[in-house]
Amino acid sequence: MRGKLIERVVAGSIAEELGIISGDRVITINDTEPSDILDWQLVESTEELLLTIQQQSGELVEFEIEKDYDEALGIVFPSPTLDKIHACQNRCVFCFVDQMPADMRETLYIKDDDYRLSFLSGSYITLTNINDEDMARIMRLHLSPLYVSVHTTDPTLRQQLMNNKRAGELLPIMKRLAAAGIEFHTQVVLCPGLNDGEALAQTITDLYALYPAVRTLAVVPVGLTGHRAELYPLTVGDQTHAQEVLDQLTRWQERSLAAHDTRFVFASDEFYTMAGMRPPPAIAYEGYPQLENGVGLVRILLDEWNMYKEKLPIQLQEPTVATIITGVSASFYLQPMVERLNQIENVQLTLLPVENQFFGGKVTVAGLLTFQDIKSVIDKIQGTLYLPTVMLKEGRELFLDGYTSNDLASAANVDVHTVNSLGEFLEALLGKEMR
Fold first, then answer.
1. Dihedral of the CA atoms 94, 98, 99, 105 (nearest 10)?
2. Of all residues in the chain, what percent carry a pLDDT higher than 90?
3. Rounded CA gap, 378 and 407, in Å?
4. Torsion of CA 392, 342, 301, 293, to 10 degrees
5. C-alpha dist (Å) from residue 371 to 100, 108, 356, 402, 410
6. Is residue 295 pLDDT above 80, yes or no?
């Protein structure tokens, strides 16, 4: 079928004003059918457009559009790339997708390794499927920054970790792109006994040599589920290992600060939790460039709490009973906050850390909890139930195991509210009583 299918139209957008609806198809924009999302966005950003739409009836309609530069039309396609997503060609020994339970939504098993998504949405790519045509396009369009999963810069070790013969070509590719002005944010998934210790030191050294093209490096611990039958035998770090990693990264931060006024390398929050340590102050995160990698989320939470706790009321006019669901790791930071909130007269708040049985293993983050995990503690829920939005698919209120927040509300016979932040939760809990 001709054209590109429209999945939905953003409310209040130009497309909605024109009467374009879900199920219509984009035939051409400025007389050209876009090959992918980059082509679409380049043309869409211009001030004058000729858009040809095929309505569901089959009728072709042309729209002459004048708009502000960079103003989006509000058309959303089923695929984030508009065409097929570039698939991952690696078989990393630590791949999380390979460790997921069966019978989940099909989209959760997609392994993307697409430079376009890296540029547009910060997805991490390995650069193992980049060809000369891709390289030329990245440089021509100046798609920067890119987000790169490095894991190690040792060519042989990287080939072993990723089970890909091309994996060892990383540094030459990054150097070529850097010479063209492309910048990077990078990450290492740290596997004890494989790419830590001296291997990590070499990785930091090699990437640091590419500064400022390589802007940052995040080090995150490997995540292991209970579904690793016949997979490579990996282990997770303990408290001692986490402390060693933090000491190693701190030494590098001190060196980089002295030379370039940046810490360059950052540890994810999980290392501080494993080590039983509080994260450093906000200034140490330098604007949180690696926030999506779990670098600094806890610090933001703690700073937000310090701001709000000075505004807490002494009492509420009406009794308020509520429960917060969270993962095991976050409870370390949330418990003192809940204890303080329970000092407010008429507040009865329960913090309910839930163990992840669905994924099993060492998965402790709230974002991977499922309906089935929460259902196992459903009898402990009291009053209104609050969930962090990271547990649910954006815009669909859907858990990873396919159930919805409405399913949970029915099963628990309570109201379920999702919140984006601590501030949003406190406003919902305390309402107008916040000072």
1. 140
2. 87
3. 12
4. -40
5. 16, 16, 10, 8, 12
6. yes
Please, what is the end-to-end C-alpha distance for the chain in angstroms? Answer: 59
Please give the helix or strand (H or E) that residue 126 lies within, else none: none
Class of domain 4-76: mainly beta
| CA atoms of 124 and 373, how far apart (whole Å) | 28
Taking CA atoms, 83 is separated from 104, 113, 117, 380, in Å, by 24, 14, 12, 46
The pTM assigned to this predicted structure is 0.90
Which residues, listed in sequence order, are joined to residue 76 by a DSSP beta bridge?
8
The domain ranges of the chain are: 4-76, 97-294, 304-433
How many Cβ atoms from other residues are within 10 Å of residue 76's Cβ?
15
- CB contact at 8 A, 217 and 187: yes
Could you say which of 3.30.70, 3.30.450, 3.30.420, 3.40.50 is the CATH number of the domain covering 304-433? 3.40.50
Tens digits of residue pLDDT in 1-58 = 689 999 999 999 999 999 999 999 999 999 999 999 999 999 999 999 999 999 999 9
> What CA–CA distance (Å, rounded) separates 254 from 259?
9
Please report the pLDDT score of residue 396 as a whole number. Answer: 61
Reported CATH class of domain 97-294:
alpha beta
Between the alpha carbon of residue 232 and those of residues 97, 212, 229, the distances in Å are 14, 35, 9
Alpha-carbon distance of 298 to 274, in angstroms, equals 13
